[in-house]
Amino acid sequence: MGVTIETAELGLRERKRLVTRRAIQYAALSIAGERGLEGVTVDEIGRRADISPRTFFNYFPTKEAAIVGDGPEIPADADVDDFVAAGPAESIFAGISRLLVGATDRIAEDGELTALRRALVKANPHLFALRMATMHRFEDQLRALVAERLTADGVVPAADIDTRARLVTLVAMAAMRHAWTSWADAPGSTGLAERLDDSFRELEELFASKA
Length: 211
Known about the structure:
2 domains, about 75% helix, Tetracycline Repressor, domain 2
């Protein structure tokens, strides 16, 4: 089956959206690095990113949100359905790895943005708090999805689903953080998706080890 004109247009719009989203974040981070947070205004972000204030607010609710940037998101419904229906034959961590790699593809993120953002977040505790709030929202979404998967697998007793989902999610978040830190500390060496694959593979090997 060929690619329809409508599908091609949706793909082009999505790419343009990601380019604009990155341009806004880069402008906000650059201004903050030069002038401090107090020097960042929506008008100046718009001037540097070549967008209107209205366009800015179509992407971010505040300048702080643009500086903090995008967090991970649960991917499309089809990916979620595949994860829930995979069954106990597939390791749940392998399934989570697939989900996170899919989520990574939707983040307007790269090494340059990360370097700028890390410096600002370290110097401004309230930005760190905002970033953590984003991660906590994702963690809650992932835990609910893991509970669905465990319920569908039918291996864990119903009374233990919530506790097991919390444990699985916390371990998965640790593996995700390990992947992100490894990627951010060595920009350009390996992509974030590859780091996620590596981190979860190491996790599986650790669980399989008898040491």
